[in-house]
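User: My collaborator sent over this chain with a note saying "see what the structure looks like." That's all I know about it. Can you take a look?
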Amino acid sequence: RLRHGNMPGVVDGTCDPIPGGNIRSYEGQSALDANAGPWSETLIFANSRSMRFPDLVRGKDTWFRVRARNIMGCGPWSDPATIMVT
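Assistant: Without extra context I'll predict from the sequence alone. Here is the result:
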């Protein structure tokens, strides 16, 4: 789930936590084109309820994807979600 952040150019997000997966962190990326990319540098989030994507281009539809990480490594990327950045 995506929502506009408190500051311009910021998007906050959340996702459902993965039960029993011993998740250590979540990773997220953004892109202006979900099919062609390029995807941004990977951001690390401590939990599924505190994802913040700063310094985004305002007035553009931006795509986001996340994945979970545990001691075994990273899971697959989520399906992309989009929101227009304000």
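A starting point for your reply to your collaborator: The radius of gyration is 13 Å.
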